[in-house]
Write a structure and sequence with these properties.
globular, alpha/beta, eight-stranded mixed beta sheet, 21 strands, single chain
Length: 451
């Protein structure tokens, strides 16, 4: 990204109209941002949420990832019922989806379970929760600058078709997923393993499925059986298909005769890793992602029983983004923390999800059997910067640790923790970095989290 530079830091308030002065400003309406904003709003703090799209959902909706992963333990016991270990805001949102018919019962995903949601219902549930909490939402709005006093965040410059204006805020939650405000302020961040990050993917939904025949062939595990992988390899060998990913995942949805499909693998046409922070890479991922969707749909039609009449319902509004910037935090979640299922008294979230690393030619899955690890609060706190906390996949984590910690259930709880933290900081006139994980966890437990 040599031809791009971030120059969006204002040391003095620019000559623009002030739209609002708030207690809490949340940037990004994904799982983490919605959780943070609702938590703050419910505590009677004046709270606004800024979102670039016309709906909330982030990777879960715009990226069409379509599942709430990370709620259930993994196990080698195929007869064992799903054991849920993540609750709190995650469970609040799941129940609201369930009440609207927008989520499935647990589905097997290898050695664990997940649930598939309807992305349209996800948007509506977010709308309802934000409205009930008194949060003011600005869709179709982007942050283009940060207003600083030394290392203290004071506000942001926003832009929409109406023009530019300023929002001043006592506390800010960067739930952009990309550590966008941290980057705009010139603070420290990094990309994965010495710049190597996980591949994006283009999720899609297909209809016209004879689900009974499909399940009789495919089975009830959403990770494809070996015979499907063998057919993908065979199709590629015929030279009539171009299917770069051999192990695909398909999830029955809440709609009849429909599947949500995670099958594509996106790399540059010259073989390079794509980093969607760069709009050239983002564009290439989008264009070739849509082409792969058509190719995998053709494969389903010709190789998978029950899919003879398959058609594409939709693709993600954007490619599914697994990883971009990570902050340099007060503390880092390490690979060893994950592998050893380390428990913490300052935990703000349990994580039973495997290391699911999508990089190179094949995904890596490392299961955490009958266990989970804890994510410490200080992974959300940047090492430099006041009045700001992050929430979502940009937390401070090593590369393989992030491949486990980045999923939706955990992002809900990171946002929950961030919302608790900014409210506590305001009420007690303390810096976020002077709070400790135990006191954040105590409030989260009162709100229903299991810690």
């Amino acid at each position: 990204m040599k031809n791009w530079k971030i120059v969006h830091r204002y040391e003095q308030k620019p000559d623009l109209p002030v739209l609002a002065t708030l207690d809490v400003l949340v940037i990004g309406g994904g799982a983490a941002g919605v959780a943070a904003a609702v938590t703050s709003g419910q505590a009677n703090k004046s709270t606004w949420l800024i979102e670039k799209y016309g709906f909330c959902g982030g990777a879960a909706v715009a990226g069409l990832s379509g599942t709430i992963c990370g709620m259930y333990k993994a196990t080698d016991d195929a007869q064992k019922a799903p054991e849920q270990v993540v609750f709190g805001f995650t469970e609040t949102f799941r129940r609201a989806l369930k009440a609207k018919g927008g989520i499935t019962d647990p589905q097997r995903y290898g050695k664990t379970f997940t649930v598939t949601h309807d992305p349209l219902v996800w948007r509506e549930v977010a709308d309802d929760l934000l409205e009930a909490a008194g949060v003011n939402v600005l869709f179709h709005t982007a942050v283009v600058g940060v207003i600083m006093s030394g290392e203290t965040f004071q506000g942001v410059v926003i832009e929409s078709n109406a023009g530019q204006s300023i929002i001043m805020a006592n506390m800010i939650v960067d739930a952009s997923g990309d550590a966008a405000l941290i980057a705009r302020a010139g603070m420290d961040y990094f990309y994965g393993d010495q710049g190597k990050i996980q591949n994006p993917t283009m999720f899609f939904r297909v209809g016209g499925i004879d689900l009974e025949r499909y399940l009789n062939y495919y089975g009830d595990d959403t990770i494809c059986p070996p015979k499907v992988t063998e057919n993908i390899i065979k199709a590629n060998q015929s030279k009539e298909y171009d299917l770069p990913r051999h192990k695909i995942w398909m999830f029955p949805t809440t709609r009849p005769n429909e599947l949500m499909v995670n099958a594509t693998r996106l790399a540059g046409q010259d073989g390079r890793m794509l980093n969607v922070i760069d709009p050239q890479d983002f564009t290439e991922a989008e264009v070739f992602g849509r082409r792969q969707v058509r190719e995998y749909t053709r494969f389903l039609k010709n190789f998978v029983p029950g899919c003879e009449n398959v058609y594409v319902v939709d693709t993600g509004v954007e490619v599914g983004i697994r990883q971009t910037r990570s902050i340099v935090g007060v503390e880092m979640l390490t690979n060893d923390d994950v592998l050893n299922c380390r428990k913490r008294s300052d935990s703000i979230c349990r994580t039973p999800w495997p290391i699911e690393l999508h990089a190179g030619d094949r995904p890596k899955l490392h299961w955490l059997l009958d266990d989970y690890y804890d994510v410490p609060f200080n992974t959300l706190v940047p090492i430099v910067g006041e009045n700001i906390i992050v929430a979502g996949r940009c937390l401070s984590a090593e590369h393989e640790a992030l491949a486990s910690a980045r999923v939706t259930a955990q992002c809900f709880e990171y946002g929950h923790a961030a919302g608790v933290a900014v409210v506590k900081a305001i009420n007690e006139k303390r810096r976020i970095r002077d709070l400790n994980g135990e006191e954040i966890a105590a409030v989260m437990k009162q709100n229903g989290s299991a810690l």
